[in-house]
Automatic annotation (TrEMBL), chain A:
InterPro entries: AAA+_ATPase, ABC_transporter-like_ATP-bd, ABC_transporter-like_CS, ABC_transpr_CbiO/EcfA_su, ECF_ABC_transporter_ATP-bd, P-loop_NTPase
GO function terms (MF aspect): ATP binding
Superkingdom in the source lineage: Bacteria
Keyword tags: ATP-binding, Nucleotide-binding, Transport
Ranges for domain ABC transporter: 2-224
SUPFAM superfamilies: P-loop containing nucleoside triphosphate hydrolases
Family annotation (Pfam families): ABC_tran
SMART domains from the UniProt entry: AAA
Family of the protein in this entry: Belongs to the ABC transporter superfamily.
Protein name: Energy-coupling factor ABC transporter ATP-binding protein
UniProtKB/TrEMBL annotation, chain B:
Keyword Lyase: no
Name of the protein in its database record: Energy-coupling factor transporter transmembrane component T family protein
Membrane spanning stretches: 20-53, 65-84, 137-156
Domain of life of the organism encoding this protein: Bacteria
UniProt source species: Microtetraspora fusca
Subcellular localization(s) per the UniProt record: Membrane
Predominant location: membrane
Topology of the protein relative to the lipid bilayer: Multi-pass membrane protein
Annotated InterPro entries: ABC/ECF_trnsptr_transmembrane
Keyword set, alphabetical order: Membrane, Transmembrane, Transmembrane helix
Length: 224, 201
C-alpha cells in the first residue's frame, strides 16, 4: 500500500505538487499528465529520491524520509534513460551489482544474474558490453537489475519513451506478467491496457483518479 | 561509446597478467617516466611500450586510433613546450606524456574493468580495519572508467548536433550543451545509484 497524505513539493518558489491525497493498493497504477505536471516528482517520492516539502508518504507504513533504506529495498525504480541506470560494463555485472549485498559469492551472483537475464529475454548477453546493447535491450537490462532485488513495488518513470514500437510493446507485456505492484508514469496511453487505476495530474494537482477509460477521457479533454 | 581505448578480448601474455599486477606495473611505469630525465632512457621505455602493443596483438586499427590521438596531443604539447622551454625539454615532456598515455591505453585495451574493480577491492581489503570501504572504492574506479565512455558518447552526440546546425566551429555550441548534458547525466546516475540502494549503508 502506497499512501500520499497531503503531499506537496516546491523547488524554491515554484510549486510542483500540492495537496496530493492518494491511497494506492491496486496492482497496476498509472500517473498520467503533461510535461511539468508533477507526475515524475510524485513517482520519485515513492522511494524517497525526492522528499515532500509538506505532508508525508508511506509505503507499507514506512516513511521514505526516515526509513529510506527499508523503503528502497521494497521499491524498485526504472528510469527513462537506460544509459544512466547501467553502472557496470557488462550486462551480467550490472545485474550482479544489484546482488552485491545479498551474501552470495561472486560466482553465485554471476550465475544468478545470468538466470535473471535469460528469464527476461537477454540469454547469452551476460558478458556483452552493456553500452553496446540496443535501446530496448538496455531497458530490459535496467528492469532485470531491479527485479534481481525482488522488490514488492516497481516504479517506472516513462520507461518506454526512448523505445521503438516493438520494444515498447514487449516491455509493456513483460510488465503485465510481473507479480510486483507497478506504478508507471507515462504519457503513452497505449501502455495502459489492463491497468486498474489511472491518476491524472495537472499543474501539480490530481485532477482525475479513475479507471483508465474515464480518466483518459478527462486527460484528453485537458490537453485539447 | 567510442571504440577508442576500450577492452579488446584476447589471450596474449599481456591479457593474462593478473589485473592487480598489471595495474601496479602501470603505476610504477608512470612514476619512472616522470622521474627520468634522459631522453635515451625515455625513448627506450617508449619503445618497450610500443613493443608490448605487438605482444598483446592489438589490432592494427586500434593501434592506428591510439597513434592518431596521441600524435595530435604530442604535436600540441611539443609545440607549446618548445616555445616555453626549448626543444630538448619539449622532447622529454613529450616522451613522458606519450609513454604514460600509451601504457595506460594498453592497460584498458587488455584488462576487463570488472577485473580491475575486483583487484582494487582485493588490494584494499587489509585497509578495511582502518575504516576504508574497498567496495566503495572499487565502485568508484568502475564508475570512473564508465564515465570515460559516457562522456565520449555525449561529446559525439553534441558534436553531431552542432554540425547539423552548421556550428561545428563554435566553442559555445559544443561547450554549453556538453556541460548541460554531462551534469544531467551525473544527476541521473546519482538517482539510479540511490534507487539501487547504493549509499544506504
Amino acid at each position: 500500500m502506497i499512501e500520499f497524505e497531503g503531499v506537496g513539493h516546491r523547488y524554491g518558489e515554484r510549486v510542483v505538487l500540492s495537496d496530493v491525497e492518494l491511497r494506492l493498493a491496486e496492482r497496476r497504477v498509472a500517473f498520467v499528465g503533461a510535461n511539468g505536471s508533477g507526475k515524475s516528482t510524485l513517482a520519485r517520492m515513492i522511494n524517497g529520491l525526492v522528499l515532500p516539502t509538506s505532508g508525508r508518504v508511506l509505503v507499507d507504513g514506512l516513511d521514505p524520509a526516515r526509513q529510506g533504506r527499508e523503503v528502497r529495498r521494497r521499491v524498485g525504480f526504472v528510469f527513462t534513460n537506460p544509459d544512466s541506470q547501467i553502472v557496470m560494463p557488462t550486462a551480467g555485472e550490472d545485474v550482479a551489482f544489484s546482488l552485491r549485498r545479498s551474501g552470495l559469492s561472486r560466482r553465485e551472483r554471476a550465475e544468478r544474474a545470468a538466470e535473471i537475464l535469460a528469464e527476461y529475454g537477454l540469454a547469452g548477453y551476460a558478458d556483452h558490453p552493456a553500452h553496446q546493447l540496443s535501446g530496448g535491450q538496455k531497458q530490459l537490462l535496467a528492469l532485470c537489475a531491479m527485479l534481481a532485488l525482488d522488490p514488492a513495488v516497481l516504479v517506472c518513470d516513462e520507461p518506454t519513451t526512448l523505445l521503438d514500437l516493438r520494444n515498447k510493446r514487449r516491455f509493456a507485456e513483460l510488465l503485465t506478467g510481473l507479480k510486483q505492484q507497478v506504478v508507471m508514469v507515462t504519457h503513452d496511453l497505449d501502455l495502459l491496457d489492463g491497468f486498474d487505476r489511472v491518476v491524472v495530474l495537472d499543474g501539480g494537482r490530481v485532477v482525475a483518479d479513475d479507471e483508465p477509460g474515464p480518466a483518459l477521457r478527462h486527460y484528453r479533454a485537458l490537453v485539447t | 561509446m567510442t571504440a577508442d581505448g576500450w577492452y579488446e578480448p584476447g589471450s596474449s601474455p599481456v591479457h593474462r597478467v593478473p589485473a592487480g599486477w598489471k595495474f601496479a606495473a602501470l603505476l610504477a611505469l608512470a612514476a619512472a617516466v616522470f622521474a627520468l630525465r634522459s631522453p635515451v632512457w625515455l625513448g627506450g621505455i617508449c619503445a618497450a611500450v610500443v613493443l608490448a602493443y605487438g605482444v598483446a596483438r592489438v589490432s592494427l586499427r586500434r593501434c592506428a586510433g591510439v597513434a592518431r590521438s596521441l600524435g595530435v596531443l604530442a604535436a600540441f604539447v611539443f609545440a607549446v613546450q618548445w616555445w616555453l622551454l626549448g626543444a630538448d625539454q619539449a622532447l622529454v615532456v613529450c616522451l613522458r606524456v606519450v609513454t604514460a598515455l600509451a601504457a595506460a591505453n594498453l592497460f584498458t585495451i587488455t584488462t576487463r574493468i570488472d577485473d580491475v574493480v575486483a583487484a582494487v577491492e582485493h588490494g584494499l581489503g587489509p585497509l578495511r580495519r582502518f575504516g576504508v570501504r574497498p567496495d566503495r572504492i572499487g565502485l568508484l574506479v568502475g564508475l570512473t572508467l564508465q564515465a570515460v565512455a559516457a562522456l565520449s558518447a555525449i561529446a559525439a552526440e553534441v558534436r553531431e548536433a552542432a554540425r547539423a546546425r552548421g556550428a561545428q566551429r563554435s566553442v559555445t555550441a559544443f561547450a554549453v550543451p556538453f556541460l548541460v548534458r554531462t551534469l544531467r547525466h551525473a544527476d541521473e546516475l546519482g538517482e539510479a545509484l540511490a534507487a539501487r540502494g547504493e549509499g544506504d549503508r
